[in-house]
Design goal:
By secondary structure, the chain is of the alpha+beta class. β2 and β3 form a beta hairpin.
Length: about 325
């Protein structure tokens, strides 16, 4: 009998726990007291659909207290089942309503499902965010390198949050605009004297087009002078021209040496032929004596002509005494 009583008590306890788990009675009381009309059956069905009633009821109470009557339980459940953050969406809608920002439930859920923090976006619409750009290196027309840092003040564009580009695109576009502005300046001194000219030129380019932000201002925080790129390029060009000229001169020198060697080889070949021809003269003279074509008087006349020729050559060369 005692065991049956204990079993009965345990069964009653289990049934009570299961009842209050599947039928959150206290949560229903809290909703009714807050002015949110929801039935116990609906709370029970949320458990069956694996939707936490606490999340939905708290969101409905917050929306009701903020005056957002258009948000329904079915919409909140559908957003939760789609993988969205119900509480974050409701927080964003309440904040947007208080700040007079036009943000509907469909837009808020779309932003949330797109992976962006819709509540943070609403806060950024109220309190603009300042983004510091990394150092941007650019060169003016006079060849002087400048290193600039900028601060970009942006505000979230609610309508562009879905599909709009992020902060990285803003930084890239601002950096490109700074490079273009400095590069179009005639002198680096002009940029240093009027750094706000960079901001004005960059702002006129409409850099926030297609992004999730609206650029409010671009302020140049710092500008430093870097290297003299123009002078360095001129020095490199001069060195390159010098190397080219030296290479061409060396090529001409090598060609001259080769031509000289060729001429020497030809001269040696010619001298060899002359020596060879001179070696044949005695043989020819001997043959002429034997054949009778050359007499002794003819031979002496030829020797006299050679001696006379030698004397004339020595006289024609100054500094050398004539042979006696």
């Amino acid at each position: 009998m005692v065991e049956f009583s204990l079993f009965l008590v345990a069964a009653v306890v289990v049934l009570v726990v299961l009842f209050f788990y599947f039928v959150p009675f206290l949560l229903w009381i809290s909703a009714i007291v807050s002015g949110v009309h929801i039935s116990l059956l609906q709370l029970f069905l949320m458990r069956i659909r694996k939707v936490p009633p606490q999340v939905i009821v708290r969101a409905m109470i917050e929306a009701h207290k903020a005056g957002l009557k258009a948000i329904t339980r079915d919409e909140l459940e559908a957003h939760y089942l789609a993988g969205g953050h119900v509480e974050r969406v409701v927080h964003a809608l309440v904040s947007a309503s208080k700040a007079n920002i036009d943000l509907g439930f469909q837009m808020a859920t779309a932003i949330d499902l797109a992976g962006r923090d819709v509540f943070e976006a609403v806060q950024m619409s109220v309190n603009p965010k300042v983004i510091d750009t990394p150092p941007v290196v650019a060169v003016a027309k006079d060849g002087i390198q400048l290193i600039a840092k900028a601060r970009v003040t942006v505000r979230a564009n609610i309508r562009q949050l879905v599909g709009g580009a992020g902060e990285d695109t803003i930084l890239a576009r601002v950096g490109e605009g700074i490079v273009s502005s400095i590069g179009s300046s005639e002198s680096h001194k002009t940029v240093l004297e009027n750094p706000d000219s960079i901001s004005k030129l960059v702002l006129r380019k409409g850099l926030d087009s297609g992004t999730a932000f609206e650029i409010l201002s671009i302020d140049i925080a710092d500008i430093d002078i870097g290297k003299n790129i123009g002078a360095g390029l001129q020095m490199d060009q001069a060195q390159a021209d010098k190397n080219i000229a030296q290479a061409k001169a060396e090529e001409r020198r090598a060609m001259a040496i080769a031509l000289e060697q060729e001429m020497k080889a030809k001269a040696q070949e010619a001298r060899a032929k002359v020596i060879e021809a001179e070696a044949e003269v005695p043989k020819a003279m001997a043959e002429a004596f034997r054949s009778g074509n050359l007499g002794i008087m003819d031979y002496y006349k030829m020797k006299n002509i050679e001696a006379d020729t030698s004397m004339r050559e020595s006289i024609a060369k100054p500094g050398k005494p004539a042979d006696k």
